[in-house]
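Example 3.2
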Amino acid sequence: MLARIHIYFIKPLTLLSMIFLLAACHRNNTHYLGYVEAYLIYVSPPVAGQLFDLDVARGDAVVVNQKLYQLDPEPERSYLNQAQYTLAAEQETLLDLENGQRSTILAALQANVLQAQAQLAFSKITLERNQRLYEKNVVSKSALDSAQTDYDARFQEVKQLQANLAEAELGARQHLIQAQSQKVSATESAMKAAAWQLSQKTGIASDNGIVYDTFFRPGEFITAGQAVLAILSPKEMRVLFYVPEPHYSQIKLGQTVWFKVDGKKKAHALKVSFISKDAEYTPPVIYSEESRSKLVYRVEAKLPEAIALKFHPGSPVEVYLEDPT
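Structure, written as tokens:
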């Protein structure tokens, strides 16, 4: 009887509060299982070579453009030197074609023109004298014709020598200059390719992060495309969780969700960045007695860069649609 009275009196006083408490607990306890995922950046050279130096170790913090490793620079360095020498020679040839002959050759051609002009002047004087003498019947017609022929030949010689000098001063024909210019361009491209190959012997960090692991030691040979080390970047970390099919419609891209790591009371907010359109069975990594046969949808939410490196890849998490704290 007393027990009944006791229940009777507390029931109206606590019923409303108990309802709210149960609702809150239900809301805060509705969560989805997942884990922290990291997409590692594997730094690998596109060319092969022996590893000379490894400038970082596992766990080191790195920044953008930081040197990570150095491969043997040969034979790429020799290829670059050869391309540079070839380019210098081709550029010199092009310059000669564009500028014309050297000064010593031009001086000789100019002297030839002056000599031919002097001979032409003498030939003209001879021709004019023979013309006057022919009119006075002092010389024969053959002597006059010979003087005229000599003058015409000297005149044509001067024109030819002047043309040769003009061509030497102007440079080579345009098609020769164009062909040499193309050779210079091709050599420049070869030099750039050699320089790029040499630069690939040095590993450079493409992003800030932490060296997650290294795979080689100095002295070992690395083939082209083989990763030397892996970088854990805060930009490439996210939380993966799986939503049961009945709750699929509650998740939207850009939606804010909260996650907690085992052993931590604080929840962190992040935004949904990916929602799978295909259902799948619960992955083995988050199997539970209740969910192992349920269909779920994979959802991803990127971790804020400011806190991403505080969490370890693979850490199990619980994701809430409302702040549980």
